[in-house]
Design a protein that fits this description.
Structural class of chain B: mainly alpha
Radius of gyration of chain B: 18 Å
Number of helices of chain A: 2
Number of helices of chain B: 7
Largest sheet of chain B: 2 strands, parallel
Structural class of chain A: alpha+beta
Strand content of chain B: under 5%
Helix content of chain A: 25-40%
Oligomer: heterodimer
Largest interface: A-B, 26 and 33 residues
Distance between the termini of chain B: 17 Å
Order of helices and strands of chain B: EHHHHHHHE
Helix content of chain B: 25-40%
């Protein structure tokens, strides 16, 4: 398991170099603080501390607590939740709101210290 | 009658018995069921949907009942055991006796956050982290790094002074005592302590750290203090509130107790001091 995660991490670092050269396309509607509570934040895709973090609006149906927004760390979904004031938390940093889902993903990578995320049961 | 004591005042024998009872619940699998229940509510409670265990008026009675269930489980192992509470406004240092090897053990090592001493250290072999959100199977802590300071006595007093129990919209955006105690708004009491401890305590599976129970026993005690200070204030809302547990509605997952039935803790236990 240790070897596997190291390989995945190294692969992600390589991908990060490519992303740094060609930044991921930004969504046209950049956050400006004036969104209504249920507007979905823009998508993101970056390598942070050697791990790929992604966020995007969820296309499928069903009830989800991120307000229709999904976050992934190395392809494994991270359970996130939007608070009434627009701040975000995740299951690995549940008592410490941050301003955006990208900040929640980065906080999760900080907290994980390289550990793999365990997929949570689909809601 | 169960008397909940300040953890700082426990005798060596009381600490030993508490730890042994917790380890026995862990060995038999009963402990992890509590972690699973807590995480299910953490994931399911939302500001604009159904909310019961957190970010809602029933945060306090829900955790009171949750702790009662845990305390009864401990007492089924050793009838002399009661839940101690941790007054983090007084015992606010990683050097407090709470974190000694004869009780909960200390902070984690810097490399991976692993707790290396005490009865719950992975090396002792009796505390596998089974209900988890990531691959790590050892107890972790990082005392005082996620946030530098625990709440002060003055900050606690400022929240106890709030006369209204809770307010619409009955969630993390609310004004009033409950949400300030929970910490989504204002000086931040309960949430900040989870962050200060770090490790599993900062996650949805926070009961993996036994300090969860001592933290919540003190939050519960602060509710009792608030009730004495504001005898004319009561639990709200009183009825007809969508997604929110009203005074006389039963709470999941037990479905047999209402907030009204949990307002008086003295039916179940008392504290060593007011």
């Amino acid at each position: 398991m240790q070897q596997l995660s190291r390989r995945r991490a190294l692969g992600a670092v390589a991908a990060g170099a490519a992303l740094a050269a060609v930044p991921a396309a930004r969504a046209a509607h950049a956050a400006d603080g004036g969104h209504e509570a249920h507007d979905s934040p823009e998508a993101f895709d970056e390598v942070y501390k050697g791990r790929r973090i992604q966020g995007r609006s969820r296309t499928g149906g069903g009830h989800h607590h991120g307000g229709g927004y999904a976050v992934y760390v190395d392809g494994v979904e991270l359970h996130v939740m939007r608070n009434a004031d627009g701040s975000w938390i995740s299951v690995v940093s549940h008592y410490d709101p941050v301003s955006t889902p990208r900040a929640a993903a980065r906080a999760a990578v900080d907290e994980l210290q390289g550990a793999r995320l365990v997929p949570f049961p689909a809601g | 009658m169960t008397v909940r004591k300040n953890q700082a005042a426990l005798t060596a024998d009381e600490k030993r018995r508490f730890v042994a009872a917790v380890l026995e619940l862990k060995r038999t699998g009963r402990y992890d069921a509590f972690v699973t229940t807590h995480n299910a509510f953490i994931l399911g409670d939302t500001d604009d949907g159904e909310r019961t265990g957190h970010r809602s008026p029933s945060f306090l009675p829900w955790h009171r009942r949750f702790l009662l269930e845990f305390e009864r489980a401990l007492q089924s192992v050793d009838a002399s055991v009661a839940l101690p509470y941790w007054d983090w406004s007084a015992d606010r240092s990683p050097r407090s006796s709470l974190w000694s090897p004869d009780f909960l053990g200390g902070t984690g090592r810097s490399r991976d956050g692993q707790v290396m001493d005490g009865p719950f250290a992975a090396a002792a072999g009796k505390w596998p982290i089974n209900v988890r959100v990531d691959g790590r199977t050892y107890l972790r802590r990082s005392l005082g790094t996620g946030v530098r300071e625990l709440p002060t006595r003055a900050e606690v007093e400022s929240v106890l002074a709030m006369a209204t129990y809770d307010m619409a919209p009955w969630n993390s955006a609310s004004d009033g005592f409950r949400n300030h105690l929970e910490g989504w708004r204002g000086v931040n009491l309960h949430n900040r302590v989870h962050v200060w401890v770090g490790g599993q305590m900062s996650t949805g599976v926070s009961p993996n750290d036994p300090v969860f129970w001592l933290h919540h026993a003190y939050i519960d005690k602060l509710w009792a203090r608030w009730q004495r200070r504001h005898p004319d204030s009561g639990y709200v809302p009183g009825g007809g509130t969508p997604n929110v547990v009203d005074l006389h509605e039963t709470m999941r997952p037990w479905n047999d107790t209402t907030p009204a039935e949990l307002l008086d803790h003295t039916a179940h236990y008392t504290f060593d001091a007011d």
